[in-house]
Amino acid sequence: MAGHGTDAHPHGADRLCESGNRVYSRAVRRGRVPRADAAPVPCLLELALLHPDPDDMDWLVPTSPQEVMTRLLRGVHEEVGASQARVGAAVAAVEWYAGLGGREQGSAEGVAIRVLDGLPRIRAAMDEATERCTREVLTVQPGGIRREDELSEGLHRALEMRRRGVRMRDLYTHVARHGQGLHTYMELMGEAAEARTLDEVPERLILFDRTVAFIPANPDRTIALELRHPALIDYLVTIFERLWRLAIPLTSPLPETGIDGITHRERSIAALLAEGHQDAVVAERLGISVRTCRAHIARLSETLGAASRTQLGVRIAQAGLDGPSQAPELLPLTARAQEPPVGL
Fold first, then answer.
1. Rounded to an integer, what distance in angstroms lies between the CA atom of residue 342 and that of residue 116?
2. In what order do the strands lie in the sheet with 205-208?
3. Which of 60, 239, 243, 247 has the fewest C-beta atoms under 10 angstroms from its C-beta?
4. What end-to-end distance do the CA atoms of the chain give, in Å?
5. Radius of gyration of the chain (CA)
6. Per its UniProt record, what InterPro entries does this chain match (predicted)?
């Protein structure tokens, strides 16, 4: 999180030191504290948790906890957006470099970037990576509810990896929670797999043993890139880990919006509308149909008393729905589920 204290107190507002926590809590309870009490904890002033009382400069008054929470949530929202933007930029760069690579030379293991043209080649390469995987699989699965036939296609591969002791972690959109197939896999995979969800995730990614990754190279996913360059792999792992930390475990409930009549999904839609996105873009990013998206927008308008899209935008801002709803890293970290890597 943004903001750090002095060398003696190197932290942000999301993890106060013990002395800072004590002084700030006292200031909130009493409404202010003497400036001398805050001298041992300059981090509170540097993080703008305390500021001078305009009526008496010998006293410090606290920033309200609600305002501090808003700052933290805004930072989380910006971090997720920046991470997703970097993933998109990396994919575009990889495609460009792949175009300069010329013909493949040597074995697949010796090629940093390999273009897989056609579903048979993609499946064959992923089957080989699955067979060689011995430790870990990381995946990002965008879109909404996955069809059960898609999930069951690769069940035998997932169970075989589980037998070999391979650990699996998946990132999905929140919409995927509503698919029974995913929860069936959660039961079948047991302790071998874990899943978390976000409002939206970047494009599909499957990464084996932190040595080889597969990403789509065209919109319909009939062409894929097989990546083995260590720098690219490290980059993708870093992005995955950051998103994983921000995601909500599958078995944990989604956070309440704090506003009666507005669901978590509707809050996510409101935030994207506030950024200026069209209905189709909002639907794609959240993994829902345009029709479902517009039904939610209609309910938002009714709940907020908006008679037009322009008025809805104003109401969204007034209600504070133009930002994130809750910091995911503050939620319990327990959930298990897995979709086996059956293809891009």
1. 15
2. 113-117, 223-227, 212-216, 205-208, 136-141, 167-173, 193-198, 248-249
3. 239
4. 34
5. 24
6. Sig_transdc_resp-reg_C-effctor, TrmB-like, Tscrpt_reg_LuxR_C, WH-like_DNA-bd_sf
